[in-house]
Amino acid sequence: MTKAASTRITPYGAPDRAVSPTDAAALLGSLAPLLHDWLPRQRWFAGKGRTVTGFVPVTVTELQPMRPGDPALLHLLVRVEQGAAGVSASAGDCYQLLLGVREALPPHLAAARVGRAAQGPLAGLTVYEGLHDPRVAELLLERLRNPGSWGPLRFDRARPIPDSLTGKLLDAEQSNSSLVYGDAYILKILRRVFPGPHPDLELPLALAAEGCDRVPAPVAWFEADDPTGSDDTLTLGVLQPYLRGSRDGWQLALAALGADREFTSEARSLGRATAEVHLALAVALPTVTLGRRQAGQFADAMTGRLDVAAQAVPALMPYVPGLRAAFDALAGLDEAARGRPAQRVHGDLHLGQALRTPDGRWSVIDFEGEPAIPLAERRRPQPPVRDVAGMLRSFDYAARSHEPWRADWATRCRAAFCEGYAQASGTDPRSEPELLRAYETDKAVYEVLYEARHRPDWLPVPMAAIRRLAGER
Fold this sequence. Notes:
CATH class of the largest domain: Alpha Beta
CATH topology of the largest domain: Aminoglycoside 3'-phosphotransferase, Chain: A, domain 2
Strand order of the largest sheet: 6-7-12-13-10-9-8
CATH architecture of the largest domain: Alpha-Beta Complex
Helix content: 25-40%
Radius of gyration: 23 Å
CATH superfamily of the largest domain: Aminoglycoside phosphotransferase (APH), C-terminal lobe
Shape: globular
Number of helices: 13
């Protein structure tokens, strides 16, 4: 196959699968017209609403070279330029792509099609989302089973992994992508990648070392060096145990609403589980004391996010003064210079991030934090009430998603969650209403901006909370 031969970039048996910069640029030249159309349509692409002006290859690695009868499988880290031509929108707009290349797609991969290349070394060949290909899942697990380097990629593991596990792409709305291997493991592929320790690996490893079993301990992971030359790494994927038979809290809450059943018992036990995770994180990682200056900084950051959201979503404008009042109250909490503890937290806790096993035990997953927030900020110590506020908003979301709206149901769940949290931690989140209101308001503002960009039909849900929070005194 002459076309297949033209896509060979390294010779068979080459120990280093990294593609040279010259060949990587040529390869990306073939892919660019396809990515311009395909990438902005992906759920995990963070640059929606801004024009894609170009792509810069960071690393290109052959997971499998193309040979007669077989596809080429490529791993790419690509920096996406948005805005003025030749100017990167931000240092963080780097995405992990796993792409397959074939002369023709078999029927089972038709839905994964990215497009047919019209230029460059891939001209005439079809490109597809590689995670739909069982061969990609097999190759990734094999590398995780046998730690070491593969071009610029490094694979490591904490314990042995059995072989003969078939991987399948999880069909769920996520800001990343996940492969499930049998009923044993789940591999999260981080799509938008940043240099530095990633919370989705860092925090579960710390909790595992502390003996906290509320969070599945990482089994293996893979990374790459920061191409800018710093000592940081780019976390690319994390393999964890798959909690088979479990259901997430969002599904359970909607099922309870649909059956006109209370959810307070589950909410109370989830509050206890959340507190246990917080207590373990406070022991495993350093904590700090926040004074008046730090409270003011948090309030200023919240106000800044409100201003940005109000410019993007005009429906927020009438409520800005009332919402700012919540942040002003946070800034004035420590007039008497009374500090309060801050620590590492989950950062994006909601019902979908909690799994309940058939025996009724809750686990907490997905410690990535809010993807729109810079990684360095996500890793800063925060008051634990930030996670509490996220879960309280989630109960409100569930109630608002049901017809008719069950505000009383949400109120009882919110109270039960706080009760369970207080039972395990000794601190009731409701004891400082100004602090809780500020963090719940910040979360609702984030939700408004997110829904306006990604799910406009859901915008009335956070806007209902905005009206309530802006009118509180």
